[in-house]
Specification:
Layout: E1 2-5, E2 16-24, E3 27-36, E4 44-48, E5 51-56, E6 70-76, E7 81-87, E8 103-107, E9 110-115, E10 129-135, E11 141-148, E12 161-165, E13 168-172
Antiparallel strand pairs: 1-2, 2-3, 4-5, 5-6, 6-7, 8-9, 9-10, 10-11, 12-13
Length: 174
Amino acid sequence: LVVGAPGSEQLTVRHGSAFFYEDIGGTWIYRTHFTVTQGNFGQQVALDGNYAAVGNPRQSWIEGAVAQGGVNLYTFSGANWAFLQSIDPSGETITEHSHFGTGLALDGETLLIGQPGWRVDDSIVSAGRAWEFRRGSSGTYDFYRMIDAPETGTYFNFGASVDVQGFTIHTAED
């Protein structure tokens, strides 16, 4: 069980945590938590087997820009949860408020990440997109492909919520 708490630390603005539990004899036992001091870490969570994804759609990783977003991945070894990797939309032209990590889904080797604030250009903002990643033999997730809406428009917010089951991907706009 993983529970996100995007407002768990109030010492400064926009901290967040993800809390991990284990079911032992019908009781959820707290195991650990991870805190990130920037963005809305924990706003979205996805769990499948020994892998968990935690979204941080307001994370800023480009100096001077706001809310590009990111996702942290964790793995369970059978005894402990540990950080696996961070994913951000690097290599792509990212603008402020793209909110990568707003939508999250995890199923088997497939990780789907929604980015509802992605803009086609300055005239079509918040059109949105989804990103598909696949878990490789090393256990980390690698970019596989981008999924754009069949039609776009300003504030379409494609990727605000996502789901994946097997090889079927579902997206919705707000």
